[in-house]
Amino acid sequence: MSKKEKKPAVKLSGSSIKRLLKFLFKDYPVALCVIGICIVTTSIIGILPSVYIKTITGYIQEGLASSFSSVQGKIVNTLIIMVALYAVALISSTVQSQVLARVTQGFLHKMRTRMFAGMQKLPIRYFDTKNDGDIMSHYTNDIDTLRQLISQSLPNLISSGFVIVGVLAVMLYYSIPLMLVVFVGIFFMALVTKKVGGNSAKYFIRQQQSLGTVEGYIEEMMHGQKVVKIFCHEEKAQEDFDKLNEALCSDMTTANKYGNIFMPIIGNIGNMLYVLIAFIGGLMVTSGGFIPNISLENLFSTGNMISALSIPVIASFLGMVKQFTGSVGQVSQQINSVAMALAGSERIFALIDEAPEEDNGDVTLVNCREENGSLVECEERTGIWAWKYPATEEFDSPKLVRVSGDVRFSEVDFEYEEGKPVLHDVSLFAKPGQKIAFVGATGAGKTTITNLINRFYDIADGKIRYDGININRIKKSDLRRSLGIVLQDVNLFTGTVMDNIRYGKLDATDEECIEAAKLANAHSFIMRLPNGYNTMLDGGGSNLSQGQRQLLSIARAAVADPPVMILDEATSSIDTRTESLVQRGMDALMKGRTVFVIAHRLSTVQNSDAIMVLDHGRIIERGSHDDLIAEKGTYYQLYTGAFELE
Amino acid sequence: MIKRLLKSVREYKKASILSPLLVAGEVVFECIIPLLTAGLINNISRGCGMDIIIKYGLALIVLAMFSLLFGVLSGHYSAIASAGFAKNLRRDLFEKVQQFSFANIDKISTASLVSRLTTDVSNVQMAYMMIIRVAVRSPLMLIFAFAASIIVGKKLAWIFVGIIPVLLFGLIIMMAKVMPLFKSVFKKYDNLNESVQENVKAIRVVKSFVREDYEIEKFSSASNQLRRDFTRAESILAFNTPLMQLCVYTSMILISYFAAKLIISSGGAYLDIGSLTSMITYSMQVLMSLMMLSMIFVMITMSAASAKRIVEVLEEESTIINPENPVMSVADGSIDFENVSFKYSEKAEKSALTDINLHIDSGMTVGIIGGTGVGKTTLIQLISRLYDVTEGTVKVGGRDVRDYDLEVLRNEVAVVLQKNVLFSGTISENLRWGNPDATDEELVRICKLAQADEFIQSFPDKYETHIEQGGNNVSGGQKQRLCIARALLKKPKILILDDSTSAVDTKTDALIRNAFRTEIPGTTKIIIAQRISSVDSADLIIVMDGGKIDGMGTHEELLKDNDIYREIYYSQNNMGGDNNE
Lengths: 646, 581
Known about the structure:
The complex is a heterodimer of chains A (about 650) and B (about 575).
Chain A: H1 15-27, H2 29-65, H3 68-120, H4 124-129, H5 132-174, H6 176-223, H7 225-230, H8 234-286, E1 293-294, H9 296-302, E2 306-307, H10 311-353, E3 364-371, E4 374-378, E5 385-389, E6 399-402, E7 407-417, E8 420-430, E9 435-440, H11 446-453, E10 461-466, E11 469-470, H12 476-481, E12 483-486, E13 495-496, H13 497-502, H14 510-519, H15 523-528, E14 536-537, H16 546-560, E15 564-568, H17 576-590, E16 594-598, H18 602-605, E17 610-615, E18 618-623, H19 625-631, H20 634-641
Parallel strand pairs in A: 9-16, 9-17, 12-15, 15-16
Antiparallel strand pairs in A: 1-2, 3-4, 3-5, 5-6, 7-8, 7-10, 10-11, 13-14, 17-18
Helix pairs in contact in A: 1-10, 2-3, 2-5, 2-10, 3-5, 3-10, 5-6, 5-10, 6-8, 6-10, 8-10, 14-16, 19-20
Chain B: H1 2-6, H2 13-45, H3 50-99, H4 102-108, H5 110-153, H6 158-201, H7 203-208, H8 212-237, H9 240-265, H10 273-315, E1 335-342, E2 353-360, E3 365-369, H11 376-383, E4 391-396, E5 399-400, H12 406-412, E6 413-416, E7 425-426, H13 427-431, H14 440-449, H15 453-458, E8 466-467, H16 476-488, E9 494-498, H17 506-519, E10 524-528, H18 532-535, E11 540-545, E12 548-553, H19 555-561, H20 563-579
Parallel strand pairs in B: 3-10, 3-11, 6-9, 9-10
Antiparallel strand pairs in B: 1-2, 1-4, 4-5, 7-8, 11-12
Helix pairs in contact in B: 2-3, 2-5, 2-10, 3-5, 5-10, 6-8, 6-9, 6-10, 9-10, 14-16, 19-20
């Protein structure tokens, strides 16, 4: 638990949010304009009540001097205008909220897909270095912060901003001195926002980080719960958890404290401001024009900016102060979610910006037909594959080379991390149709070699040729399509058994899939499943045994029918009785293909054409089983070692 | 259910009670302040003197101070209460899971436990915060605002009687439509996240089969479906604002008209000008608090599902509990199975084990062999009481395993599971799970035994090498050897390896077994294996088939008498035989 003690400093820049907005505008230019217009309309109309209340209060005073009927007409006229305006406001706010709901969800969908599409193109290295939980949180927590931002914060900030500016403009119109008093209030509110708001945002982000740590710990412990129990490690686990949980609680409390006290402080600064306005306004009125009011209204009506302050002006001013405070409160409430969205979008863009797998290959894999002894490219699957060189100056038409499965390594070096070489000077050749086995201790570099053939990683030095072509020239997707791989850790997908087999060849018919399952000897256990081939596999097939999963993954590779196969401990979890049954299918599967086999059961590799014994990244012995036994080297020791305890 | 949840409030009871009280205080002031301001405006419009303004002003400032005080305090305490409650809830859940037996964990499933401890707790925490703050605030606000509007507006308050039902009706229809939609949205959301996780885990398969575009399309269509459903739900909720505005606007217009009429016709006696502004403020407050109430209602209903899932865990009784007067020491490493039958759940039709009778002497090496799913793992899990037998008795050291203190038993019976896990931390931290007090020399000695020292020494940081979550940065074989070393550190009387060397090469496997024989001769060793070579030198080999013991004996005996054993043997060695011709 020692590694994550130190929390990274919270540092935010606005650039990611700028970029996010750019994306948003590019995706929804029209909708955003509509929303913008609606927000502005609603906000402007939202400011008007205070103006009309003032007008009506004026009429009432007038009416008090005479009678209701004398002012009724005027009041009704004013109200009709209000009704009309409100109708407009209602329509625009309906449009706004409906369009906004669509834009928000649409944009989230687009961002998710962008992220996912980017992620699919990343090199394996990326997945080696990141843990699953971190990747997942981009799709959950980070995307959620965007939803908050777009559906709530942005519209709120825009409309509150408008109300604030609008109210200030109206204030300016009625009374400049009183507006200056309001500025005093604004100063204090800004002060509070800076202090409390800054802290609040900081702690909210910190809370998110602590939450991530705690959730990560929970995930790890729940998955290892059985081991925890076997080692009676419950108390220690609880102790560590309590520490993290306590830290989270304290961050959460601080964050929420700041968040909660924001509104009361802003609200009550508003109340004070209210009193101040009433006091100064009252002073101005009772002074009977001694302290004059300076306003644009006077300028327009009398041509003179200066006059005595009237009571209706104070009344409407007080209303405006309320509205003003409310809007400032709204803005301040958005600070947390804006800060969180900032952090979230930064992480999202970090994923999107990650450099994709490089692919400069121009040789592609195509289906061919044989016509008059030469290859002709065709659309349908013929079972004959060819590498297609693009047309060059030399050959004006694309050149076709039949895929035969000839793989050669010459003097290949490789390292996962700089300075830590894993493979040294590896040379080997696999002739078409040969079965090549890799034997060696764990960590000797067996899997690494296969990872280089399909270019999950690129070599540091040396050459790899595939049917005489430098594999760097072959388009990665085509290179991999020509290789069938069965890995030790089987990953199945949520879906039916049939779907999982079909993963190898998306357009395979049911019959083809069943044929492949029979070949892999998976058919009989599949038929015993509750719904046969239509049985749903949940959670990556956790309802199957490891051996059954391996059988399925062999079937999956079989249906793909590639010219070259790589079997990396493909049968390690299948018990040997079943393996001997599968072996027949495997033999059928391997027939006519170049096959690379990794296995620690020597019985699996004995009939290989060539066996490479690896040790610390070097090939130390090579030859057929009989050659190696005769050589009495490491292989011989391994082979006899299995029986030494007899 | 609520009672069970409230048990987790504990030391935050004070804060949990204080915050609604303080909120109530805050509301009182928030409602009195407009009353005073209305009075102030009235006085000003009547042309009162500065003395009255000052009097009102001072009163208002005092009230605002109080309101501020209450507001800040309630914010303070409610933050403490809700964060604390969530902490306790998380802690209680975690503690409960620590007590769970394997059967409990199987029943609820790991993935579900994770989401209960994370998402569900967050949901309940939000709801709790809402309840202690807003759920007090809104009804109080509603009552105050309503009462005040009756006092100030008198007859005008009737307007609300007309408008509130409209608002309520609208809200109820909306809620009724939105709730089921949201439920399905959340489920879809979960599925989407699961599929991302699946994809990340299987990225090598995806890339090997060149299915990136297929995966993108699959994801995009799932994400798009989510978008569609979410939009449908949100667009219904989006009617909230216009509905609210409709009510506010209508009441403003009605209030303005009738207030003007009443003020003028009564000559300012029945109603005065100040009342107009305060009535409008109150109307906003009444409708706002109604809307907040409806929101809380939604929140609570949505979190109810989460609360239920949490309570399910809290109320789940561990199927294995410590006996009352436990035996605190294990005599020796002998094991007896007497007429043991076992089912994973009461409802299961088939028994996983039937009628097992078995005696193993202390210090013996026992091999168990048989196909996948025949009950090998089940059998050994009964020894350390990871599950309880359905019928019969399992004895360790001559006593029923149910008589032992669990910790004592499990410390003496070390199991290396098939699906083993390393935790994030250094190698030595992981190894010390077996024995926290082990010295560095001890670690090295044990690791040499488990054939792990060599590769650990080849790492730059040796025993301080950091293991990533799930042990992804060591190979399968290395992981297995670390797990064996971890179990050996316990110095158990019984050591069980459940197919724990499947990824280890044959030579190393033999070395490990050799070390067992010479270094820990007194320990009973049970080895489940696929390879005959892993078990053929054992004192006793058990052949299992279909939940039963098919045969028992030494390698030679079984080779003579047992068909299954013979078949396995020849399937593994026939090629070797061919070559030795």
